[in-house]
Structure formats: structure tokens, C-alpha cells
Amino acid sequence: PLKEYSIDYFSPSIIKDDSKCIRCQRCVRTCDQLQDIGALTVAYKGHDMKVSSFFEKPMYEVVCTNCGQCVNRCPTGALIERNYIDEVWTAINNPQKHLVVQTAPAVRIALGEALGIPPGEIVTGKMVAALRRLGFDSIL
Fold it and tell me: Do 124 and 140 contact (CB within 8 A), yes or no?
């Protein structure tokens, strides 16, 4: 780990904690070679080497598309998803708000598999019913 490190909380979806980085560069290769974005890069050499962004800017100021593939590849938790659970519960408990949730298409199948439903079976109706019971008004 780096002795002098920073934590970037500025991205809407990714938190980058340099103190946990082992400099394996999986995130850099994923961003550059698999996603063809290049938001992450290697800065400096030798002992000072670190994973960084363009000119060490915060993640929200670079070309990051917030896809999360770097988070998926990070073995140490130096890159993690930003959590909005408390804000969501606050919104759900506010009767003045009309809550809209949008899910990715893959969730409709992966959710079923996680609940023991046969692989490939679409569980859209069950997911919508569960989201409505939680308090969401519109499900896209």
C-alpha cells in the first residue's frame, strides 16, 4: 500500500481507495483493453508507481463511463461501488416523493438464479411485485 494515499469519493458510482491498491493493474487493463475507455492508467515508476486517472483528476472529471468493470476486477477492494442504500430508504419513507426504479435487463434473469429459480427463467413480474412492496411507485 502507498504511504501517502487518497480516497476519491467524487464519482457518482465508484470509490477509489489508494491505500488498498496492490498495483496489480487489472483495473487499468480492464478499462483500457476490454472497455476501450482508458479512464485509469499507471502513474510514476518503481516504488512510486500507482493506479491513477488522467493527471490524477477525480474519477468524475475523466472519461469514466461508470460501468463498474474495474470494480469487478479489483481483488482488494481498492475500487468499490458507491452505496446509496440509506438515501434510497430515506426516499422510500418520504410520502411526498414519487419513486421510480430502473433495472438492467440482466437483473431479471440473474435475480431468479440467485433465488433458486431455474437458469434462464425470466422473473420480471416477481421483481416488479417485490419492488412495489418495498415502496417504489414506478418500475421501468
Answer: no
